[in-house]
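In the current project phase, we have settled on a layout for protein records. A sample record is reproduced below.
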Amino acid sequence: MTLEHYPPASPVLAAHVARLGQQAPAVDRYVNAAVIADHLVDKTPQRSGCTDEQRDHLVGQYLAVLDRQDWCDAVRAGLDADSDFFAWFVGNPAARLRLRAFVDLTADDR
C-alpha cells in the first residue's frame, strides 16, 4: 500500500514526525519511524504522495529524531539482538538509512 493517491499524505507525515519528536523515545516508535523513513527513501516521492522536496524534508526530520542520543539509547536497549527481526532491521532499514544507533552493526561499516 502506498500514499500515492492520498492527497494529504505530506501534511499527515509532517504532523506525525513533528509529534514523534515531542514524545518519549520507545522501541516501537523508533522502529515504526525508521520503517516510514526507509519507505520514503526507497520509493519515488510520488509513491508517497510527496514532491521531491517534501520527501527530502520529511526524511531529514525523521532522521533528526531517530539519531537523537535518547532515541538511540532506547532502541539499542530495547531490541532483542538475538531476534530475527533485529537482524532484518539492522541489515535493511538501519543500514540503508545509516541510523546512528546501528552504524557499528551495519555491513557497510565493517
In short: The mean pLDDT is 91. DSSP finds six helices and no strands in the chain.
